[in-house]
TrEMBL record:
<feature type="transmembrane region" description="Helical">
    <location>
        <begin position="220"/>
        <end position="244"/>
    </location>
</feature>
<keyword id="KW-0472">Membrane</keyword>
<dbReference type="Pfam" id="PF02118">
    <property type="entry name" value="Srg"/>
</dbReference>
<feature type="transmembrane region" description="Helical">
    <location>
        <begin position="100"/>
        <end position="122"/>
    </location>
</feature>
<dbReference type="GO" id="GO:0004888">
    <property type="term" value="F:transmembrane signaling receptor activity"/>
</dbReference>
<keyword id="KW-0812">Transmembrane</keyword>
<protein>
    <recommendedName>
        <fullName>Serpentine receptor class gamma</fullName>
    </recommendedName>
</protein>
<dbReference type="GO" id="GO:0016020">
    <property type="term" value="C:membrane"/>
</dbReference>
<dbReference type="InterPro" id="IPR051119">
    <property type="entry name" value="Nematode_SR-like"/>
</dbReference>
<dbReference type="InterPro" id="IPR000609">
    <property type="entry name" value="7TM_GPCR_serpentine_rcpt_Srg"/>
</dbReference>
<comment type="similarity">
    <text>Belongs to the nematode receptor-like protein srg family.</text>
</comment>
<feature type="transmembrane region" description="Helical">
    <location>
        <begin position="186"/>
        <end position="208"/>
    </location>
</feature>
<keyword id="KW-1133">Transmembrane helix</keyword>
<dbReference type="GO" id="GO:0007606">
    <property type="term" value="P:sensory perception of chemical stimulus"/>
</dbReference>
<feature type="transmembrane region" description="Helical">
    <location>
        <begin position="46"/>
        <end position="66"/>
    </location>
</feature>
<feature type="transmembrane region" description="Helical">
    <location>
        <begin position="14"/>
        <end position="34"/>
    </location>
</feature>
<feature type="transmembrane region" description="Helical">
    <location>
        <begin position="143"/>
        <end position="166"/>
    </location>
</feature>
Length: 292
């Protein structure tokens, strides 16, 4: 946190940082085990395209968590680290550019993964006869398109150096906008609106079909719906900070602190919801992850 009254980093909340690290660590380990099972074991349970997309989402999550805890969250809660970053990186430098690029890249990857998950469940319910054939033919093309779009939408961060600045009573990394009107925040708005629209519509249709599908399919659909809700909450917190003037947050430090906590909680729920749902709903997946 940043103390706007004397322009210094606020006293360390290191305990918060440790607590958040400890509750995220088990899910990181589960993601790693799940990744190992899907890639190296060729388990028939994970042959569906859903799990390939879920794997991409999980890998994106792992790198996003690593990037989030390495700089943004550490600056928010560890005053020594915050002061170090403010002392050495207030002037634009390309030293921070790779981190910022990949931090944005994996955010876009995660958003697109959820769209693909919703599309996968949608076709399984609405077009069951064409479902397997469609995903067998187009899965890799869609993942390649996902990667290309994520690189493109993150590319503005490569056009200028990055630096630290005060935003909403905490320090964050931003980049120099050398190309007018082309920025990652604009691309996020462009992707958020159609993504939310598709996610909401597809999930309404999926919920209406829950009673007509098999038990295993129902578990995957419920997982997708819960992941969708958490993703929408995360996107809404981004829209909130994007449209509310920065001066408002600086004038109301308590609201700023509440927003910071809310945004981190929604991000964490977004990152762990998919794994948690699959573990709770599907005993077969629990057995392959924990017992083998």
């Amino acid at each position: 946190m940043f103390n706007s009254e004397n322009n210094t980093c606020a006293p360390s909340h290191f305990a918060y940082f440790i607590f958040q690290t400890l509750y995220m660590l088990p899910f990181v380990l589960i993601y790693l085990k799940f990744t190992y099972r899907v890639i190296f074991k060729n388990n028939e349970k994970y042959s569906d395209a859903f799990f390939t997309i879920y794997l991409v989402d999980g890998v994106s999550n792992l790198f996003y968590i690593l990037g989030d805890f390495a700089i943004p969250r550490a600056m928010a809660y560890i005053d020594i680290y915050c002061e170090f970053m403010m002392r050495h990186f207030t002037k634009p430098t390309y030293f921070l550019t790779p981190h910022f690029f990949f931090y944005m890249f994996f955010q876009f990857m995660k958003s697109f993964s959820l769209v693909l998950l919703c599309l996968n469940r949608y076709t399984s319910v609405v077009k069951p006869l064409e479902h397997k054939h469609f995903w067998k033919r187009h899965l890799h093309k869609l993942i390649i398109a996902q990667i290309i779009l994520s690189v493109f939408f993150s590319s503005p961060t490569l056009t200028g150096p990055a630096y630290t600045q005060i935003s909403i009573s905490y320090v964050q990394v931003v980049y120099v906008h050398n190309i007018p009107y082309i920025r990652t925040s604009l691309f996020r708005i462009i992707t958020i609106i159609p993504s939310i629209a598709f996610i909401v519509i597809s999930n309404i249709i999926l919920m209406s079909k829950l009673s007509k599908v098999t038990e295993n399919m129902r578990k995957l659909i419920i997982t997708t719906i819960i992941m969708s809700i958490s993703q929408i909450l995360t996107l809404m917190t981004f829209l909130l900070v994007y449209y509310v003037p920065a001066q408002f947050w600086l004038n109301y430090p308590n609201l700023s602190a509440a927003y910071l906590l809310l945004s981190q909680i929604t991000k964490d729920v977004d990152m762990i919801s998919g794994t948690l749902c699959l573990l709770v709903l599907d005993g077969r997946i629990r057995s392959t992850i924990f017992l083998t």
